[in-house]
Amino acid sequence: MAPQREWLERDFYADLGVSSDATADQIKKAYRKLANELHPDKNPGDAAAEERFKRVSEANSVLSDDSKRKEYDEARSLMASGRFRGGGGFGGSTGGAGGFDIGDLFGNAGTGGGGGFGDLFGDLLGGRGGASSAGPRQRRGNDLETETTLAFRDAVQGTTVTLRVTSPSPCTKCHGSGARPGSSPRTCPTCNGSAFVTRNQGHFGFSEPCPDCQGTGTKIDDPCPDCQGSGITVRPRTINVRVPQGVEDGQRIRLAGQGEAGMRGAPSGDLYVTVHVMADKVFTRSGNDLKVQLPVSISELVLGATVSVPTLDGSVGVKIPAGTSDGRTLRLKGRGVPKRSGGAGDLLVTVKVSVPAKLDDAATEAMKQYAEAERASGFDPRSGWGR
């Protein structure tokens, strides 16, 4: 059976243990569960688990991408209906509107249309869309995901974190070429480096990845002993990530080229880091503004005062006007979250009366005198209230 058809018959939904109508959230949840169970760190030396981990990652890379998933579903539906036809088809009618040319599926790279099924299955097969002279298209590595947790102020001000990731990475011995150091891959004589061969069967032609080079366009006579010619080894690595200032809880950071390595020196995928931000005991956040509650006494509100308020850069003095109401919010310009475009949000200071649980005799007597003076002045805190 042609390798192209083997890929089409691969059931990515079964690999993830979900139904074909699973939602994006269900697919994401299933992938995370399996990736956690099968991760090489938890199964050292288990080749079967490592292979299963790769299959799960590969399935997720297709099904988690809406456009790739749609193309995959459509291609499998067409194959199941037997609608592939001549000029490279797998069977069915040699003409008519009901047929589907496999060349349309794998060979549109040179038509100027771009994208389409050829991009998806070219990635899966590690080759290119058709048999043009442009040469084989390398199979890019899968994207990876990880998480990190930051203190509130580190997220607001920006920081550098160190991540330890275990994933398929370029082999350090052969630098990803797959060949033993001192040797090099050579052009495959069967496909002349095109990565594809064509064979005829009756009235039909099959264009398929070259069986001698597995669709890479090159042959390795002396494979690297560490990676057995794949150019990839699973190993832990340390990545220093610069987290930009103002990052929010749940935000994802993309690290280009830090994902899973591609086969035999092909480009690596990307690494996506989801940031979780811990709560702060002083500040809360609303967009680019910071919020803080300031405890004050009744006398400070009545008489006015200048009090110290914490900011990201230390404390500053804030003037409370005489007669300020409890719950009033004072705005300090430019003391909030730094903006990537320059400047910063504001610090919103909400005053909150703190009442003493107990007063000594002198303070009690003073408070009684104040209450008498307050009534004498005609002040009624409930004037107009409840009507």
TrEMBL record:
Cellular localisation: Cytoplasm
CDD domains, A to Z: DnaJ (cd06257), DnaJ_C (cd10747), DnaJ_zf (cd10719)
Species of origin: Gordonia neofelifaecis NRRL B-59395
Main location: cytoplasm
Keywords noted in UniProt: Chaperone, Cytoplasm, DNA replication, Metal-binding, Repeat, Stress response, Zinc, Zinc-finger
Stated name of the protein: Chaperone protein DnaJ
Assembly mode: Homodimer.
Domain notes from UniProt: The J domain is necessary and sufficient to stimulate DnaK ATPase activity. Zinc center 1 plays an important role in the autonomous, DnaK-independent chaperone activity of DnaJ. Zinc center 2 is essential for interaction with DnaK and for DnaJ activity.
Domain (J): residue spans on this chain: 11-76
Example of a GO MF term: heat shock protein binding
Coiled-coil segments: none
Protein role: Participates actively in the response to hyperosmotic and heat shock by preventing the aggregation of stress-denatured proteins and by disaggregating proteins, also in an autonomous, DnaK-independent fashion. Unfolded proteins bind initially to DnaJ; upon interaction with the DnaJ-bound protein, DnaK hydrolyzes its bound ATP, resulting in the formation of a stable complex. GrpE releases ADP from DnaK; ATP binding to DnaK triggers the release of the substrate protein, thus completing the reaction cycle.
Record domain CR-type: where: 158-236
Entry's family note: Belongs to the DnaJ family.
Compositionally biased tracts (Basic and acidic residues): 37-57
Region (Disordered) residue spans: 37-71
